[in-house]
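ARCHIVE CARD
Drawer: 12
Card no.: 0347
Subject: one protein chain, sequence and derived structure
Cross-reference: see card 0346
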Amino acid sequence: MPAPVAAGKTALSVGEVARRCDIPVSTVHFYEAEGLIRSGRNKANHRRYSRHVLRRIAVIKVAQRTGIPLREIRQALAVLPEDCAPTAVQWRAMSRQWQALLQQKIADLHLLQQQLDSCIGCGCLSLSDCPLRNPGDCLADGKATGHGGTSMAGI
């Protein structure tokens, strides 16, 4: 069971956290379930969040906006103390950690853009050798597994 949170102006309700972070209450609960933030309980057994959770959620939102997967965000936050907001130094360390991942995403998007240009020029969307529809000819080589949408998994 989560530790109790001291009553007073520093403890925030789930609704206050959601409003101040401009996210739905369900997202606050989701972040908590995913281990990205944590709450305590007051005497009435209501969830209460420390104010530092606002900064952690801001970090989560920025990271998600740049395309960082939740598992990467969780790993980065796991090394930080849970009872305080990330400092500027800690934020820079997380940022450096994510640079390679973001550079790879940029390279992947650039390649996709180039392939899309040639695909639009061709217009065939060939089922056998189109690099967008069937990358690496995985459908012909039996590399694709499952049914339905897995044939579009690389897109």
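Annotation on reverse: The mean pLDDT is 79. The CA atoms of residues 127 and 134 lie 6 Å apart.
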